[in-house]
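The following block was generated as part of the benchmark described in Methods. Ligand: S-adenosylmethionine.
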Amino acid sequence: MPNRFLNPYIEKIKDFSGVVFFGEECKTLLNGLNHPVFLDIGCGNGENLVQQATENPQNYYIGVELQYKEVYRTALKIQRKGLNNCKVFQMDAKKLPELFKDKRIAGVNILFPDPWPKAKQKKNRLINNDYMKALFSKSIDGAIFKFRTDNDDYFLDMLRTIYSMRDDHSIDIKELSRDIYNKVKIEHKDITAFERIFIKQGFLINALYFIFNKSIKKYD
Ligand SMILES: C[S@@+](CC[C@H](N)C(=O)[O-])C[C@H]1O[C@@H](n2cnc3c(N)ncnc32)[C@H](O)[C@@H]1O
């Protein structure tokens, strides 16, 4: 008898062999590649990820997502488009950097990460000093980082984090806006599913984009 408490998507995503990866398989895939990867951390339903992968067949994309249902929705899109340059990892993104054995990250999108708005929840936010250090340690020169959020407090936190790292890392800020769509046109190709909802609700969208270059050497 089916267990009505079991999340049905746990089984469903097992049908996407070669598209959805779990646990050790993620590590094996990453370390078997001989080219850099673009990451979409917390890719949700995969709309933006699949769009990027479709438009840039020369790049290799990996969506990282915790929720089984979102992994399923992403996998379905990848399969329907027949994309060979796009995969999805079902995992906690906090563990992602430790899967890379060498510098392999060419780009990171963190678009509308869970805001954890209450003071005592803030420790759960994905972006913090340690996480960024871990990502940087696996990033190649010229890697492009893109963050967007409707949550002002999280955005200011992100800025503090990134600015505090500028003594040790070369971080070339390309875009910093508290209202990105007042400045650039909303282009369908880059918009995410959550972003569309937030914009409809009248929220302003904060954006921070930067290029990471190798760590700055400290003089003894
Ligand atoms: C607000 S949604 C945004 C989804 C998508 N980026 C968008 O803009 O439409 C945040 C997503 O991040 C995922 N997420 C949150 N924490 C995560 C973690 N530690 N590892 C992987 N995914 C995570 C959630 O499951 C959710 O799908």
